[in-house]
Amino acid sequence: MTWASIAPAQDAPASAATVQAPPVPPPVPVEIPFASRDAAGVTAPSSPDAWGGPRHEGQEHLSDRVVSYRIQATLDPVRHRVDGREQLTWRNRSDRPVSAVFLHLYLNAFESEGSTFFTERRTLSPGHARGAGEVGKGEWGYIDLSSVEQDGATLKWRHVHPDGGPQTDHTVVRVDLAQPVAPGASVTLGMTFQSQLPRVIERTGYVGDFHLVAQWFPKIGVLELPGERGATEPRWNVHEFHFNSEFYADFGDYDVQITLPKDYVVAAVGEQQGAPVVEGGQATWRFTQGDVHDFAWMAARDFLTRETTWQGPGSPPVAVKVVYPREYEAVAGPILKASTDSLTYFSRTLGPYPYRTVTAVVPPFHGGEAGGMEYPTFYTVDNALRVVPGTLAQILIDFTTIHEFGHGYFYGLLASNEFEEPMLDEGLNEFWDDRMLSERRQGVHMTTPFLRFFGIDPEFGAFVFERMTASLAAAADPLGQNSWNRLSNAEYGTVYSRTATAMHDLEQRLGSEVMGKAFHAYYERWKFRHPSIADFRQSLVEASGRQDIVDEVFSRYVHGVAYVDDRVSDITSTEVLPLAGLSIRDGKRVELSSDDNDEAIEKQRNAWHRAHPDAAEGTGPFPWRTTVTVWRDGEAVPQVLKVTFADGATETVNWNDGRRWARFDFTHGAKAVSAELDPERRIYLDTNKLNDSRTVEADHSASTRWSSDIAAVLQGFYAWMGTL
Known about the structure:
Immunoglobulin-like, nine-stranded mixed sheet, 35 strands, Peptidase_M4/M1_CTD_sf, metallopeptidase activity, zinc ion binding, Peptidase_M1_dom, M1 family metallopeptidase
């Protein structure tokens, strides 16, 4: 491969009569700092022209292509090694010369226990989680950068630690350039590298002859400019590979050739260019894709493909493929349907899907660590030997597929910074996935065929189930925290469910139509532009006109760790009866003894019941006074208190102030039966919905039902865990 070079600009020669001005020295490159090692949720909106301004029809490309990759890769499937040659062309968008660039070498996270990834894994005690797989002898992974050239000159590089990680971490390198890259100019680097795949762990690797080749090539970091994601000066956003972190990169175009034994099946990001070229026992596959920010691929023997074509308004025809091991043929159809259904829903609600391919890969047995991961136009899903409708297996297959496809929008097209603001991808995607399930009226069945045989089939709405898993009362970190400064692996995991629950709670206050408009506007404005949390917040404010509500939610939950727990702490309901004692009648004190009073009350009751033989218990000739006490353990939210009476009537009152407790009195012609906060179930952030209501008489049916359902949920969950 011949590496391209940059021709320096030349000035026209001066005339002989012109007095030559002293030469202007070229600008001296100034070191560009790293983004803060503690960078997290951005609070200042990006400038309108950030990342080249909004994208619109008529522009040459979908994105402002900053980088271009031309890669030739050869896979040795026995040694599980990729030998690569890479031509990387990068454009300097800043107003200053750049004398050094920074590259991610993500695979080095798996070269030893001294990496930032493994160091954090030990600290965060992940337990049973993706990335928790053990690495055996000969199963480590790494990437060796063999050479880097610029315009024929050999360049030097060294490992750096932007986040202050251990010196034994080698996931970021600094490359010093032979010639600085002028503002607006481009540089082309030629590289050779060797990538040793680990046994499958955390998004990449091999198991048997299956290879998921991801984060496998030297990848340039992002140079952010003032006005972009809160930056006030140019900065390199190039974090180490953290345990819970995913990725962030510039948009560009990829042209990748993959050579490997001819009996292997290959699937990859983007469009395949013609049939593989076979020479001897080797075949070379070529894939290209523009306007994406990553490239991954898989190779395996004896995999099958099921495919269809999807068409939708504003989108090109999309070739949808499922690539799967022969033994998992049962999931191919459901995954294909979930993928096409997702194309329809996301295109209609956010914006037309712009690419021509969607590829879902089913990992093999023992390849679970490769499942449930997303790349542009390409994602891995779950596997199962059979899928019975209305069971846990079906919802796992459907939801995993919907979720990984959804990343194609929130991670792929919007391309938020997954290092620093994971809620913008994982959390918002989870919310939109739940919205899709709700529209389909697809519940979460926490059961198996065996449990259903015994009549155990608890079903929950998507948002109800999300709320149950959200750990709302014990949040240690704000939703807007970065991916690595977390109390634990479990705390990071709640980014999914807590964000989805917070957004659904906000949707109850703003309205579903307003929320839909806000997300659509957010996508249209920020697609291909790397938005921040502040940019998302601005879209919500503009669409709703309710800055007060949006600011409250972001202050409490996105940038804080507030919680809500309102409860009915007491309810009493007593008859208002005539009272014994002295009273003034015609100017004189008249005594009514207790015995006479009781006799009069009894006569009045008997007469009333004779006139109302079918009256409900708790009704009669006398009114009832009901007192309800409500208590607030967390943040104040607008509440509705509903009291139900024995005659079927109800009364409601608003509790909209910040008092710690409040007492409400009601006088009605019947005894109260119950009192309930949030009767329409609109406050999803309430940590404990079981204490939202109370009956006058003890009623254990609700707690019995919940206990039964929760037991069934746990049994179904552990049955699923046993299949991993």
